[in-house]
Specification:
The complex is a heterodimer.
Chain A: H1 21-29, E1 39-45, E2 51-58, E3 62-71, E4 85-95, E5 101-106, E6 110-117, E7 120-128, H2 132-148, H3 183-195, H4 199-232, H5 238-291, H6 294-298, H7 305-344, H8 346-393, H9 395-400, H10 404-457, H11 464-506, E8 527-535, E9 541-550, E10 555-560, H12 566-573, E11 581-586, E12 589-590, H13 596-602, E13 603-606, E14 615-616, H14 617-621, H15 630-639, H16 643-648, E15 656-657, H17 666-680, E16 684-688, H18 696-709, E17 714-718, E18 730-735, E19 738-743, H19 745-751, H20 754-768, H21 775-778, H22 782-789
Parallel strand pairs in A: 10-17, 10-18, 13-16, 16-17
Antiparallel strand pairs in A: 1-2, 2-3, 3-4, 5-6, 6-7, 8-9, 8-11, 11-12, 14-15, 18-19
Helix pairs in contact in A: 3-11, 4-5, 4-7, 4-11, 5-7, 5-11, 7-8, 7-11, 8-10, 8-11, 10-11, 15-17, 19-20
Chain B: H1 10-13, E1 17-18, E2 23-27, E3 33-37, E4 40-42, E5 45-49, E6 58-64, E7 69-75, H2 81-94, E8 102-109, E9 112-119, E10 122-129, E11 135-138, E12 141-145, E13 151-154, H3 162-168
Classes of the chains: A alpha+beta, B mainly beta.
The complex binds adenosine-5'-triphosphate (ATP) and magnesium ion.
Chain lengths: 790, 173
Amino acid sequence: MKKGFPPPFPPERENKNKLPPWVIRALEEKGLSAEGLVFACFCDMDNVALYKDSWLFFDNKGLYIASGTQETVKPKRGHVPPEPKVTIEKIQSIPVGDIDSLTAERYTSTGRLVMSENGEDVPLTYFSLGKIGDLDEFARAFNSYKETGETGITPRMDDGPGKCKKCGAPCPPDKDFCREHDKNKGTAVRLLKFFGTHSIQIAIILALMVMNAAAQVFVPQLSTRSLYDNVLSGGSPLEQSIKALGVLVLSVVGLRVLKTVITIIQDYMSASIMPRIMYDIKVRIFEAMQRLSVGFYSSKQTGSLMDRVTRDANNIYWFFTDGVPRLIIDGAMIIGILIVMFTMSWKLSLIALITTPILFLTLVLGDRLFRRMHHRVWVMRSRARSLVSDNINGQRVIKAFAKENDEYGHFEKESDAVRDAEVRLGVAEATLFPILDIFVLLLTTVVLAFGGVMVAKSEGNMTTGTLLSFIVYVNMLKEPFGFLSWISNWWSRCSDSAQRVFEIADAMPDITEKEDAVGLENIRGEVEINELEFEYEPARPVINKLSLHAPAGTMLGIVGKTGAGKTTIANLIARLYDAKEGSVKIDGIDVRDLKLADLRRNIGLVSQDIYLFIGSIADNIRYAKPDATMDEVIAAAKAACAHDFIMKLPDGYETRVGAGGQSLSGGEKQRVSIARTIIQNPKILILDEATAAMDTETERNIQASLGLLTQGRTTIAIAHRLSTLRDSDYLAVIDEGKIVEYGTYQELIKLKGEFYRLYKIQAEALKTIGIGDTEGVFAPDETEEEKHDD
Amino acid sequence: MTDAIQTISPETLKTEYLSAENCEFFASAHGFLGSKIKGKEYKRVILTRALPLTEPDKYICITDVEKTELGIIEDTSVFSPEQKKLIDDELSRRYFCPVITEIKSIKEKFGNFYFDVMIGDFKKNFTVKNLNKNIRYHGEGFDLIDVDGNRYRIPDFKAISPKSRRNLEPYLY
Ligand SMILES: Nc1ncnc2c1ncn2[C@@H]1O[C@H](COP(=O)(O)OP(=O)(O)OP(=O)(O)O)[C@@H](O)[C@H]1O
Ligand SMILES: [Mg+2]
């Protein structure tokens, strides 16, 4: 929202965790006061999973489920929606004392609120899965209220339907934005804004297009009308006729040349501005994509983003380079032709015009018919295409399983489907178009018949030449009409694309910097995690009330089963996602209060899945610090034990990696990515399985060099191999998003718990392959132990 | 190897297939499903389908409330009618999906599909993004998944009214 924007109307938005006034009134009519209400939530199903409006709420005495109906009245355009009519049919109340706790259980398409009573599960109400976030919050609020007397949940404001998400002004209930902010309406206007910077050129292009159309309209006047009336009509001496013919031929040729020149200039000009406009649009998308948070990219509904962006940009491009010029030329031509036709003979024009709507209608209907077939062909083609790309990417696997023939069979099947769909479309088109042509023929015949009569009667200056050129005009109308009948489709496809492009451009990043965010120039590197809770999807907690502390300059090791939430913790520290509850603090400041650039600059994250950009190895290492000298690059590569293998490559540091470049092994990629982080020189280093793909010796060497580098640096190391974590000052064992054990290496061994078990497993594994004394392999050196005691 | 690390053994790798002989179901007082498996009683068990779309009555996984697997039922038809009803009731609760009885209209706008449907007597509007990715075919019909993750079922596409079919057909495949 802009600053100084008028206050939202209605002035106060409802608190989502309270009941709306009309529900409270309906409850009071039933004799239930909502005065002591603590927390409320709307639910859309009843206890047999039928849709039913119901409200759940609790006070310090009981939990209430009031079900009934709520009728929303559709508001007039731009009016405040009137209050919904609520009737309460049933109220179920359960004394708070009877409920031990509430849980929102997730089923396939629904969810169910379940209470536990003396260790027994008792089902309450169903709800549709989309509501699980609200119901889960309700359950947590209840549990926490029962335990502590506080819900522990900050009230949320309702910005749902009925009010504009941008300014809070009323809007239709099925829309998120008011008319002013409704993006759908503004698509055309917003697209045109991209053209604004080139307005002079565009005005010239427009003028040229109109001239082009005028030239085309004028041609039949000479080539047909003059030809018949002045040259072929006879009556004048031969010499004069030939002279007239010469003039005619020359002027027709002249007109054609003029038209071609105009077209060349026009194409030349649009060719020089369209790419610029597309550039502007693409840059806008790209910039927006950089701003968006990681969550946007992994969300399921986004689909294939890259494919979408390029395809959408192309759709817009072709509409504006092909569609719009034709629209303008054809539009101008229709107007021009009609004017000429009417000046020639208004009677014949009327006759011709009466029949044109029929033509237009057949064109539109034909298009409807074909759209489905086109769609089918398109779906089939893209299926075959994705099969091909799947195959190319999976060649190794296909070969390893000797599945070439099966894959060939699949492709044959898909191709058959494509072929059949294409044949069907082709046949349909081949039959329909000739029928359309017959319509046009009929139309011209009718005009010819009437015109012939008029010529015979010499009515209204009608001559053979006029009639024949008139017929030419009628035929000339066919094409622009045909084009107009499907330009609307073309536009809708273009605006679809534009809308999606704007959707990305307008998408709000989940993670935003506060206006008064604090900068951090020199940080110490203390990391403190407090009661952290996080979930990717509602009611599927990944991190559960987790607290951890890594004092500045120490090394914290994290172990845990796969899927325990280790990577998630790393992501939360770097604020790639925001915590749901609790906080992550760096030097005692919540990461949400820090400037994002400062935060990320100080945190080096070597992540589990490594991505190298297309470019040379040196460029990849330099990624965080583009101005790094070659000395720095080599130093970083040495520290990451990457220098030696890089030097063995024929192109050395200039070896091209990334998609399409040299393939590096898993461990080599990891080393490049470690070097990339080392050069960044972060105060906090997070190593998420950073050395998992390497042999133990290389890992040791990297650790040794990191050890030198990490002095005074906080390191958080995540690993499955315990030997990786032997230098850690503290260790945390994580399971299902919770800390199960925490302490120094020695403490955890003494504890004989989960860590000890892991330790034993790995030690036993070594023993079985004949490495006797395992204690030495894992236990920290004596000297280090002394360091701990300090 | 010592016992301490023996978490995976031939025993644990073997799937426990359950049938009417070693497994019996009962309804708890509050309508949840309980079970007695190999003589051990569980107050509440959870059933999960391994092939929810194509084989809803085969390969049913039984877990306790902590999601520890107790066994797999290969085919529910081996149970007595009363037992099978208990199983089916629990599964239909867990896999409950509102059934679309009529498709009144579908508007496609900007890649979103706005459905206006009837679910029994209830009028429901929902939005599906990216239709071909959010449709799950099974047998004669399919499930539609809306933007909130809710599913709506059409059990038999041929059985629905011709008008409803015409509304959706252009968007399928
Ligand atoms: N983007 C995501 N959306 C939904 N769920 C996710 C997402 N990323 C991870 N998860 C889930 O969150 C849980 C924790 O994942 P996380 O990557 O933190 O595990 P981890 O401890 O790093 O595992 P590993 O040792 O295999 O790397 C897993 O159950 C995973 O399926
Ligand atoms: Mg991980």
